[in-house]
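Limitations

Structures in this collection are predictions, not experimental determinations, and the ligand pose is part of the prediction. Treat each record accordingly. The example that follows, with S-adenosylmethionine as the small molecule, is included so readers can see exactly what is and is not provided: the inputs are given verbatim, and the output is the predicted complex.
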Amino acid sequence: MGGPVPHIPVLGRQAVEFLNVRDGGVYVDATFGAGGYTRAILAAADCRVIGIDRDKSAIALGADLVQTAHGRLTLIEDTFSHLDAVARAAGFDAVDGVVLDLGVSSMQLDAAERGFSFRLDGPLDMRMGGQGVSAADVVNAASERDLATIIFVLGEERHSRAVARAIVKTRSAAPIRTTRALADLVASAVRSRPTDIHPATRTFQALRIFVNDELGELVAALAAAERILKPKGRLVVVSFHSLEDRIVKSFLAGRGETRAGSRHAPERKRIAPTFRVLAKRPVTADADEVARNPRARSAKLRAAERSEAPARNDDASDLLPRLPALADVLKGR
Ligand SMILES: C[S@@+](CC[C@H](N)C(=O)[O-])C[C@H]1O[C@@H](n2cnc3c(N)ncnc32)[C@H](O)[C@@H]1O
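Predicted complex:
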């Protein structure tokens, strides 16, 4: 269906299998991207897909697929933290499956002007939705301490203090405005061997996750999926680094327990699990897929089936790492 697929969807076949796509079903592809997952879902059965992406260019490029899907595909520009409200607004009070394929798309990475890549020179932007605060805003305003925390926690960068120090020193001469300028200063602050990943990889990852509030979005999306999935509906999440995978794993472990409530509450009530985990260990890509698509190397798929129990409305934000608030970071220095 549709034209050529410009992006090889990581773990696409396995994701669609776990979704258990059926005729008449309604599925939310909450990270539409280049539409690889959506095409596979639409091809698997006579079903409907609601595709969501916060990137307006992804939604615009999906227009052809909407045409060829003949009423079976609705595309909405929004954040996936709102996926339950988006599904309701599209006319569905409950859905049969939700899939999330996290992170950036290759379309975003390959567009120098979006500022995601340390390999291409462009403005230091990194906003998936094009609104709000950019990576340059954070890099030029945050205190050295906040920068080090963000880069350590979200980039898991051991040399975060050295990187933060180098950023503050460089920007005292002139603001840091380009991906090349940031990549170069990180490379000079972090010693690396030629066989290592590019020294700026972790710093870029940290800033991208921070600017897009990717972990907050993920936690909210998991709770939204719990609210909108039918009994026996499937949740499938593909993640690309340990911070995301840890959140998905902990969320599903908590929702699979028979006890719940605040960890501060003296008494914990017995309540029914809302999800049943479908594979104890995360599914990973095989050697063939990794050879075709190196990005698949770090991919982990987790899947669960919704039970009949009502959604828990407790706050899942304790799954998030501790970080300075964006508003405080921008007050900076
Ligand atoms: C890895 S790509 C998805 C690729 C897609 N599965 C495919 O087969 O083409 C991730 C997409 O999710 C989108 N995205 C990331 N975070 C989002 C969020 N919080 N809300 C909505 N879309 C988001 C990105 O803009 C990007 O287009």
